[in-house]
Amino acid sequence: MPCPNHPEVAAGLEPCERCGGSFCPDCYVILRDAPYCATCKLEFVRDLRSGIEPDGLDYGSVGRRFAALFLDNFLSTMAAYALMIPLLLVIGAAAGVAGASDDSGASDAIAGIFVLLMYPILLGIPFVYEGWMLQAKSQTVGKMALGVKVVTPSGAPISRGQAWGRAALKIVLASCVGVTYIPALVTRERTTLHDMIAGTRVVRVHR
Known about the structure:
By secondary structure, this protein is mainly alpha-helical. About 55% of the residues lie in helices and about 10% in strands. The chain has two domains: about 1-55, no CATH class; about 60-205, no CATH class.
């Protein structure tokens, strides 16, 4: 469809962030990195002057986010143990056989194998769990239970790349003494570092 104000222009249109209508470059302005038509521009400015956040998102509280994080960590840890305990039993039995034959080199190699397998399990399960759940539903089990979900800054569903990228960033940054969670305590949008980098926000789900 052409621009509603200039019917002769049908190329290079941009959708207004608020009303969704498509407008040509002469009919929209960029505010906070998003295009707004003339009518919505005025509403946007009025909202700002009134102290109303134009995005209209209801951000998830820090308490909800940390409760969801606790539940997700519990679930992924239990899943990791479900894999590691049988693995430990098998490796322990193999080490016992090696010890019975006085083969200390084999025992050391078996112990090294367990260590090498332990970290991929402990890090891989949370990564796959988080990435897969966010890609499928924009929520993990913890976020479902606490009524929050992950969206883009405009409130739209996140992409597959954002889902998996956010999951990877969360694991890497959380391992740095939990530094990723510090901004959530002081920012208005309660964004963590992995939210900032991945371009995501966590909002309340109103049923």
